[in-house]
Amino acid sequence: MRGSFSAICKYLNWVLTSRLRAVTVIVLAMSLLSSFASAQIDEEAREVGSYRINAGDVLSLQVWNEPSLSSEQFSVRPDGFVSIPVVGELQAGQKTIAELQALIAEGLSRYLKDAPTVVVSILASNGNLVYVLGKVGRPGAFPINGPMDVTQALAFAGGLNTFAAENEIIILRRDINGVQKSIRFKYGQVKDGDKLETNILLQSGDVVLVP
Q: Taking phi first (over 0 means left), then psi (-120 to 50 degrees means alpha), and beta for anything else, what does residue 133 get?
């Protein structure tokens, strides 16, 4: 009897230990999944709202419960300004959507009893362009509808022609303060699979010069 009782106790202890191990594994797995999901959400939150408005973009404005202050469609002028009902002129160029919404809400709050809820949407990103000039098949301006690197822009422009200096390409880029810098790009190295980190993503307004 004592042997049987001892065996039963050992068996029960093994079952409980196994179940505790299983529960521990499940808890750890759920914790890891939760951390991964939180990291993804944080990463997405950092990426949201990074687009900067350009001259030529077409926007819409919705002011919650104030239809008379809303606007179905308005364009960003070449100087980067927009005209907002009641508020007047605002600088929109090179601002994010969140920044422009905050400016409009601040302006409207002077005339409204309650803090307004403002939503600005991009209807057309006509001003989101890069320019490829020089010895390419089709020089011109090309819209950025998604991430575009230098080689993709050259492909849009019909590729390099026979006389192009493929290792002397320059990207001209102007920052928010209007200061321009040049970035050298050696197409010959990239097409051979070298220096791939130099095949940078282009930004709105970049000019790719192919001598």
A: beta
Which residue matches tokens 């006389």? Answer: 163
| Residue owning tokens 């969140």 | 98
Scored b (16 or more CB within 10 A) or e, 138-161 reads: ebeebebeeebbbebbbebbeebe
Q: What is the DSSP string of 12-80?
A: HHHHHHHHHHHHHHHHHHHHHHHHHHHHHHHHHHHHTT--B--TT-EEEEEETT-GGG-EEEEE--TTS
What are the tens digits of pLDDT across the range 155-205?
999 999 999 999 999 999 988 788 999 999 999 999 998 989 999 999 999
Can you tell me the distance from the alpha carbon of 8 to that of 108, in angstroms, rounded to the nearest whole number? 77
pLDDT single digits (tens) 61-98: 999 988 999 999 999 999 999 999 899 999 999 899 99
- State the pLDDT at residue 18: 57
Rg for the chain, CA atoms, rounded: 29
Burial 21-37 (b: 16+ CB within 10 A, else e): eeeeeeeeeeeeeeeee
Q: What is the pLDDT of residues 8-44, one digit of tens each?
A: 556 546 544 555 454 443 433 444 444 444 344 344 4
